[in-house]
TrEMBL record:
GO biological process: L-methylmalonyl-CoA metabolic process
Cross-referenced InterPro entries: Glyas_Bleomycin-R_OHBP_Dase, MMCE/EMCE_epimerase, VOC_core
UniProt cross-references to PROSITE patterns, sorted A to Z: VOC (PS51819)
Protein species of origin: Epidermidibacterium keratini
GO molecular function: metal ion binding; methylmalonyl-CoA epimerase activity
Name of protein: VOC domain-containing protein
Pfam family, one: Glyoxalase_4
This protein's UniProt keywords: Metal-binding
Length: 232
């Protein structure tokens, strides 16, 4: 049913943050950059990141979701206390690996207090492909990775400060970057309050990562070792 992420509405504090977020993709003042077939849409009204999934035919996808026991209203599907949009996949924009810019969506993180319920909902009802389910005591969490097009929906069940059992929480997102050092240099010259932290080794061998500081939604930047989805 689901073919990927069509759109992410990312909460921002104001237009300054929206413009800065857009400039991560090297798009100047454009505040709704396309990364592959995914649109990153800054929103001053969203309380947390809102997800629209890409589907081949929204009407058929809504019917299937309803048959699988999900609440469906208009173009929204309610699952695990969250509302997801179902939208036709847009034409992919070539993700040019330009030094100093993000070129793709790597993964989106959801926190849950009920990992078994999450597997049943995201895998069984939404139909996402569960690729990995592991306990990660070194990070104090159980981590589940669902393939979602060219990206990953990473569902994390943290031992510390879990969300409400009745409602999952869309926590953050990660973008792929070809050259983290070049991106840090370019963004440091913007004069904005948002900063990219120190580059460090990622959890997947060979990757490097850096966190964005000051934005409303947590954003991680990943420099993949082999241009593969990392799901960190």
């Amino acid at each position: 049913m689901i073919e990927g992420f069509a759109r992410l509405s990312v909460p921002v504090a104001d237009e300054t943050e929206a413009t800065w977020l857009g400039s991560l993709a090297g798009s100047g003042n454009e505040t709704a950059p396309r990364l592959g077939s995914t649109t990153i849409m800054p929103s001053t009204t969203a309380g947390q990141i809102e997800i629209d999934f890409a589907v081949d035919e929204p009407t058929a996808a809504r019917r299937l979701a309803a048959r699988r026991g999900l609440d469906v209203a208009h173009d929204r599907v309610r699952c695990r206390g969250l509302e997801f949009g179902l939208a036709t996949r847009g034409e992919a924009v070539a993700g040019a690996k330009m030094p100093g810019a993000a070129y793709g969506l790597d993964h989106v993180v959801i926190h849950t207090a009920d990992p078994e319920g999450a597997v049943a909902a995201y895998g069984g009802r939404l139909g996402l492909d569960l690729r990995l389910d592991r306990q990660a005591p070194q990070w104090g969490a159980r981590m589940m990775f669902f393939r979602c097009g060219n990206a990953v929906l990473e569902v994390v069940s943290p031992q510390k400060d879990p969300p409400s059992p009745e409602r999952d929480e869309v926590w953050g997102l990660a973008l792929r970057v070809d050259d983290l050092e070049a991106l840090r240099e370019r963004m440091s010259q913007s004069g904005a309050a948002f900063q990219i932290g120190a580059v460090r080794d990622g959890r997947k061998p060979g990757t490097r990562v850096a966190s964005v500081r000051g934005t409303r939604a947590p954003i991680l930047l990943i420099e993949p070792a082999d241009n593969q989805v990392t799901g960190q």
